[in-house]
Amino acid sequence: MRYSVFSILNQALRGNTGWKPVWREPEPRPAYDIIIVGGGGHGLATAYYLSNVYGITNVAVLEKGYLGSGNIGRNTTIIRSNYLLDGNEPFYEMSLKLWEGLEQDFNYNAMVSQRGVLNLYHSDGQRDAYARRGNAMILNGADAELIDQDRVRAMYPFLDFDNGRFPIQGGLLQRRGGSVRHDGVAWGYARGADSRGVDIIQHCEVQGFIMEGGTCVGVETSRGPIRANRVGVAAAGSSSRVMEQAGMRLPIESHVLQAFVSEGLKPIIPGVITYGAGHFYISQSDKGGLVFGGDIDGYNSYAQRGNLPILEHVCEGGMALMPAIGKARMVRSWGGIMDMSMDGSPIIDRTPIDGLYLNAGWCYGGFKATPASGYCFAHLLATGEPHDNAAAYRLDRFRSGAVIDEKGSGAQPNLH
Ligand SMILES: Cc1cc2nc3c(=O)[nH]c(=O)nc-3n(C[C@H](O)[C@H](O)[C@H](O)COP(=O)(O)OP(=O)(O)OC[C@H]3O[C@@H](n4cnc5c(N)ncnc54)[C@H](O)[C@@H]3O)c2cc1C
């Protein structure tokens, strides 16, 4: 069923009795060409591009919970492509371009809103680093503008420009960045993949891998064994747990990241702002809530909830940047499990086990990557070769030393 103004009118005249479920609820079949483990954004996008671009439709996505129960439905919805390093920037710019055409492509309203992402700088050194980053972005075909304090003031007059410790000097602006309704992305990809024949199977936990002669030929699940020629794992915060079942230890730690939402307010923040002197970022949802977040909780955990010290830490960043935020009441917070890799960059690669492929290590930045990650993982699964824009995301880089350490924090996920 295609969504359009005509289908809305048609349904309005028929009392909205003709809408169909957005995807089917099929029983798992005994075998598929490809199984994707994890029905988050990346798993669903992979299935969508496998069916839509590579013509492979005999595919199942196995999700242990319900669609949207993981990070795809828990993130703070920011998209951008403001990266510096060669291994990253072409990939994230590919993703931003895919976001730009996504709603038309999968015929679903995901509320893609290119409202601009502004990274503030507070010192001369930070300005120079942002100038370098902006130049790298432009060289890779992305947009970037280094703006001074006057222009930031014109956009956001309520920020604390004269803060005693960290006065705002200016910012790096990416106008094409913005936000997207996160669960709409899961639903749109699910609907698009399902309509091409992909089986999306909820409440089906992968509990082991079926190995024959050292090759992965399927999975053991809570709903029985299912065979496949290739298995792709896209389990985000649970990647280590899932791959442990194949005897693999990943260069990944799982950490909690929290998000916070205030009561609904009149529109005050048109874009996304990030504080350069601490880890704090903020935007305003279409319903009026201020949506903000900051650092990970800083300890290993598989719990989808956080603790109070980081709440205080994030709110301190908010108060330093925008003192008026202290008047707003916070109404909601939640946590998600981050798959923190040892250089802060992701992995899209085959594994040493034939037939088993891995998509992981997204840290706290994997939402913006969803379209390119799905596309590149589908390319790898379909062709056996890495996509050009994801060629640096190799699993063996932690052994070879070819790491992509965008933040220069080294193998310390707690510092990323
Ligand atoms: C609070 C917060 C804020 C964030 N903000 C941003 C942001 O602003 N911008 C940005 O780019 N990124 C952000 N992120 C990061 C982003 O959400 C993640 O990197 C990304 O969503 C991870 O990929 P995914 O969508 O596939 O993950 P998920 O949605 O977590 O998908 C993985 C799925 O695998 C399933 N699974 C796990 N184990 C099994 C199993 N054994 N069998 C079957 N299924 C299994 C899980 O149930 C889950 O549904 C944020 C994350 C959080 C938590």
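qc> Residues 37-43, 62-65, 69-72, 74-78, 205-206, 234-238, 242, 257-259, 293, 336, 362, 364-368 surround flavin-adenine dinucleotide (CB under 6 Å).
qc> done
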